[in-house]
Amino acid sequence: xxxxxxxxxxxxxxxxxxxxxxxxxxxxxxxxxxxxxxxxxxxxxxxxxxxxxxxxxxxxxxxxxxxxxxxxxxxxxxxxxxxxxxxxxxxxxxxxxxxxxxxxxxxxxxxxxxxxxxxxxxxxxxxxxxxxxxxxxxxxxxxxxxxxxxxxxxxxxxxxxxxxxxxxxxxxxxxxxxxxxxxxxxxxxxxxxxxxxxxxxxxxxxxx
Length: 208
What we know:
By secondary structure, this protein is mostly helical. It is 78% helix and 0% strand. The protein has ten helices and no strands. The chain has helices at residues 6-20, 25-37, 39-61, 64-70, 72-94, 114-126, 129-141, 149-174, 177-185, 188-207. Helix 1 (6-20) packs parallel to helix 8 and helix 2 (25-37) packs across helix 8. The longest helix is centred in the last third of the chain and has 26 residues, at 149-174. The model is unreliable at 98-109 (pLDDT under 50).
């Protein structure tokens, strides 16, 4: 069925790839989880980020995207929810313990469970207003209204897989011994810098 919508799919695939590789909250959380806790936790976080895309796909297919587009106040609520989550993540980074106490295998005392790592990635993407804006633009300007919803869901599954694979790659790079050792030497300052960056992203969402 996708062959019939080849040109539409190609535009979506290129636009999504450019969006997913641009730095943002998803990238920062993958870096943080991978450096602090190791490849397994970073990869599970990456899968959570990819799965979070389905939230945006479902509300777009259901037509809620049009409601968000035509109701600025409703979209503001979504934006503020995303900003609040970024502020909370930033607070966690700023108040975390020094990474210098961990060994290279990522055995920290506050190692998250698989569910916690997945949830962190999932919520980071699902509550990301940048992703909301992207899907609003994508499904109202590129995807035709005549495109069947199973095809639109297939687009979403493609983006899920590509997103997860990209951030798994990011996690793999971050846990390479020279790269990870460099961040670990920064100790607590690494988390503090990430926390400040997350707060800056939240501030940008609130005021712009």
